[in-house]
Amino acid sequence: MLLQFPHSPVDGTAVIAEKLSEGSSPLHRLDPRVKLCLALPYAFLVALSESVAVSCAALALGIVLVAVARLKVGLVAARLRVLFLFILLLWITLPLSMPGTAVYTIGRLSVSLGGLQRALSISLKSTAIVLLVISLLGTSTVFSLAHGLSHFRLPKKLLYLFFLSYRYIYVIGVEYRRLRDAMRVRAFKPGTNIHTYRSYGYLIGMLLIRSFERSERIYHAMLCRGFQGRFYLLDHFHMHRRDIAFLLVMSLMLIGMGLWEWFLTISL
Amino acid sequence: MGMVSNNILIELEQVSFAYAPLRPVLRDLDFILEKGEHVSLLGANGSGKTTLFHLIMGLLMHYSGSLRVFGEERRVRKDFDEVRRRIGLLFQDSDDQLFSPTVAEDIAFGPFNLGKSREDVLWIVKETLAVLGLEGFEDRVTYKLSGGEKRLVALGTVLAMRPEVLLLDEPVIGLDEEHRNRFVNILKESNLSYIIISHDHDFLEEVTNKRYLLGGGRLQGA
Ligand SMILES: Nc1ncnc2c1ncn2[C@@H]1O[C@H](COP(=O)(O)OP(=O)(O)O)[C@@H](O)[C@H]1O
Ligand SMILES: [Mg+2]
């Protein structure tokens, strides 16, 4: 799901690394429609939740799902690294900037309890959401997700926009690297100077023009095959009993967590 | 038009075309493709070979002169619907042609546009893959295919529309021996008329029997 460009695209045939989606765990084999149905409500619930207990439960569920999906620890860690940098920033700024009871004072700076709580809550929630999304959506290829989405009565054009962006981001990525390498072999070294900025400007401009020209060629190729503005799909998903069971269990847990959150807020 | 007219598939008379004013790419060009002809189109880079193909398919408008395809004058957008149904254009870069997630889906795109039923389309997909020697490729993801497989599937997306004429833009460039040979065999076994842009003389020798050279905006027999 999350993109990585491989480093040696000789002829543009190299593959987009969808490493998380490679696997044969029960989660990988689930119908993508089921996973799509669950990912968004879970993400919303966790994002909106205000109780630490519910956030912890979601985090635990995320960890369990990652384990069930048998995702490689290294791959998951790579996804979390970026998030943790951001979280670290919050732990530094929030306790110092939020007003509230001081738990500790260093000179004129005071560390507030409210700030600490907020930082903890955001850390738990964001980690939980990333783990849930990785284990639910990361375990399907983008194309099967796009395919799955097409069963939800979304506008086809939106869907194709989604898929085509994904389909061609890679091709544009290859073009980017080709241009960058062309600069490198002529001894280009980025620095903090006008020459660097101008060169990057040309690079980006060139990339935009090429992408535009490519989009035109793709459209032309579609016209040549009789495109009239309509998209068709040869669908081939079948819901199995295990898909329904998973959907049911996960939905019940979602409702449970929602109720739990609700009781905690009204009892406050 | 006379008696031979029903054998003429494509006929250009005094066609001129320019992307930018005062810099014509094609200049008073004459060309005829007859039924059953296997033509190669040579010419330096930038001489306008691709432009000529795109003009025939109605992807470029506003030419001067006369362009007749299947016996009728083609000038405005609507005239080209029939042309695109009956002529298949293979683009130079297969990434431009293959935009669907799976091979089956991409091959199905054209037949669906022609209004074929799902059953017919599934059958066409199967048959097309058999012709290409790519049985079992239905669910392969298009952008993960090798260069040679991509080019064959791209040809398949064109063949699936059952065209009468093929326009092939550099079809075997960058292909290995094996895929190139498959291309040769598919062309030889088809009974289509076609025009091929290529710089590969061995390939042209095998699959074409008539040569044109594009230079200075005009065609010469070669
Ligand atoms: N979209 C375009 N806009 C402006 N000029 C173009 C465009 N496409 C091609 N040309 C120019 O037209 C000429 C013929 O191009 P093309 O038909 O692609 O040549 P060939 O296929 O023979 O290499 C070239 O000089 C090229 O730069
Ligand atoms: Mg060309």
Largest sheet of chain B: 6 strands, mixed
Distance between the termini of chain A: 39 Å
Q: Which chains have the largest interface?
A: A-B, 32 and 41 residues
Task: Count every helix of chain B, treating DSSP H or I runs of 4 or more residues as helices.
Answer: 8
Structural class by sheet pairing and helices of chain B? alpha/beta
SSE sequence of chain B, one letter per element: EEEHEEHEHHHHEHEHEE
Oligomerization state of this entry? heterodimer
Count of folded domains of chain B: 1
> What amount of the residues of chain A lies in strands?
under 5%
Strand order of the biggest β-sheet of chain A? 1-2
Structural class of chain A: mainly alpha
On the 0 to 100 scale, the average pLDDT of chain B is 92
> Biggest sheet of chain B, strands in spatial order?
6-7-8-3-9-10
Mean pLDDT of chain A: 84
Which spans of chain A of ≥5 residues are poorly predicted at pLDDT below 50? 1-16
Strands of chain A, total number: 2
Order of helices and strands of chain A: HHHHEEHHHHH
Ligands bound here?
Answer: adenosine-5'-diphosphate, magnesium ion
CATH architecture of chain B: 3-Layer(aba) Sandwich
Distance between the termini of chain B: 26 Å
Helical residue percent band of chain A: 55-70%
Give structural notes.
The complex is a heterodimer of chains A (268) and B (222). Chain A is mainly alpha-helical. Chain A folds into two domains: 28-140 and 237-262, no CATH class; 152-235, no CATH class. Helix content of chain A is 68%, strand content 3%. Chain A has nine helices and two strands; from the N terminus they run H-H-H-H-E-E-H-H-H-H-H. Chain A has helices spanning 26-29, 32-48, 52-68, 73-97, 113-136, 142-149, 156-184, 194-224, 241-267, and strands at 102-106, 109-112. Chain A has a two-stranded antiparallel sheet with strand order 1-2. In chain A, helix 3 (52-68) runs antiparallel to helix 9. Chain A is flat and about 65 Å long. Residues 1-16 of chain A have low confidence and may be disordered. Chain B has 222 residues and is an alpha/beta fold. Chain B has a single domain (38-61, 84-221), classed as 3-Layer(aba) Sandwich (Rossmann fold). Chain B contains eight helices and ten strands. Chain B has helices at residues 49-56, 80-86, 94-97, 103-113, 118-132, 147-159, 177-189, 201-207, and strands spanning 8-18, 24-34, 38-43, 64-69, 72-73, 87-90, 165-169, 193-197, 210-215, 218-221. Chain B has a six-stranded mixed sheet, with helices on both faces. In chain B, helix 4 crosses helix 5 (118-132), helix 4 runs parallel beside helix 6 and helix 5 (118-132) crosses helix 6 (147-159). The longest helix of chain B has 15 residues, at 118-132. In chain B, 46% of the residues are buried. The mean pLDDT of chain B is 92. At the A-B interface, helix 6, helix 7 and helix 8 of A face helix 2, helix 3, helix 4, helix 5 and helix 6 of B. Bound molecules: adenosine-5'-diphosphate and magnesium ion.
